[in-house]
Every structure is written in C-alpha cells, then in structure tokens.
Amino acid sequence: MFGLPLDEVSKLGSGIATGLKTARAVFAIMPPGPGKGAKGKDKRRDAYLGLLAATGDLITWHSHLGLIAMTMQRWEPFPWRHTTTAIHQVADARAAMSAYLAALSEVRLVGNPEPRAAAEEITAVLGELFDVLPTAKRAAERDTQIALTSRWMLRLGEAQKDFVLVARRDLGFAGKLRTRWWQLWRRRSGEEWPGGWPGKTAALVIEKPATSPSSSGSL
C-alpha cells in the first residue's frame, strides 16, 4: 500500500490525458462548421481569454502534480501522510480539467473558425503533455517522461502563440490578411509576435516530440 498516493496521481494524469484526447477526437468527428461565431466582440474576447486562463490553470496543475509525484517517490518513515494531500489535490485537478473543457466549449460556441481550430490544437498538445506526466517509478522511464515534458511544453507555447495571434486578428487587434490580390493595404502574412519571439532572436528550435511508449505522438 506504500504506493497508493503516487498511484492516485499517476491515474489522475492518465485520466486527464484520456479526457483531453477524447474531447479532441469528439470535436474532430463533430466539427463546429465553417460558420462565423458571435457578432459581438466582447463575447468572443471573453471566450478566448477564458480558454487562455483555463490553459494556464491546467499547466500549473501539470507542473504541481509532477513535483508531487517525484516527492512521493522519496523514502520517508510515514508515507501515508501523503494520502490526504493526494486525495484533495486530485479532486482540485479534476475540477481544473472540467473548467478547461467548459472554456473550450465556449470557444466552439461563440468563436470564429480560426480561433476554434487553434484552441483544439492546444487541447491536442495538452493531452500529450499529461500523457507524459513524470509519475513512473523507474528512474530511467521517469527521466524520459521529464525530457518529453520539456519538449511538449515548448510545443504548447507554440500552440498558445498561434491561438493568441489568430484571436488578435479575429478581434481586430491586428491587421487583416490579404485574401484578394488587389487588397494591397492588407498584409500578405500574419503579424509577428508583439515584441519579438525567441525563435527570431535566439537559437531555439522547437520540434515535434518523438513518440514515447505512453504517448501516441500524434497531433
């Protein structure tokens, strides 16, 4: 019974990963269609901000649960003291998962096509990220999970960047793209990240993580 608290954290990570991947699969089967979202910018803005906030909450839980899992693997004379912590935090993390799915549903309800697609990409990456939550009991496997977590975090940053940029265009905070050859006043490509982006100023290479035994690796 020594491993019970850690097992609860491990099951939670797998459960959240499965839930996110299932949601992504369901949304792929039932796309919201090409139609426009709500006419009012306020509704769309609130939905987009809500998704970013829910994503940040879920990322925080991922980091926290990973730290808890590693702490629980250290020997101590009273291992059961972790049990109450695991029970309470597992419940709170599940609530964050529900809040994220609610925020995603809001984007699908009132958002425009580009932000909807970008939001679903964030969902796909989050699913892979929780699939490699570092809860393995073997050190070698845990090190692999930690390495994959770092790479998926970078991929999530890219997905969030894409979401913010399309949301800015959708809300009129950025210039519209040229859709006809004669629209010379519009940009040919999307705006750069405000203030620059590490990919432009530093040797940061972000690649799609390789498939791991516990991750499908598909986006």
Task: Please explain how this structure is put together.
The protein is mostly helical and 219 residues long. Helix content is 65%, strand content 0%. The chain contains 6 helices and no strands. The protein has helices at residues 4-29, 41-72, 81-110, 113-131, 139-170, 198-201. It is elongated. The protein starts with a helix and ends in an 18-residue tail after the last helix. The relative contact order is 0.15. Residues 200-219 have low confidence and may be disordered.
Key phrases:
single chain; 219 residues; mainly alpha; 6 helices; elongated; disordered C terminus
Condensed summary:
The chain has 219 residues and is mainly alpha-helical.
Rg: 20 Å
Number of alpha- plus pi-helical segments: 6
Q: What structural class do the secondary elements suggest?
A: mainly alpha
N-to-C CA distance:
37 Å
Helix-strand sequence: HHHHHH
| Main sheet specs | none
Percentage of residues in DSSP E strands? under 5%
Tally of DSSP β-strands:
0
The stretches of 5 or more residues where confidence is low (pLDDT under 50) are 200-219
| Rounded mean pLDDT score | 76
**What fraction, in percent, of the residue positions are helical?**
55-70%
Structural shape: elongated
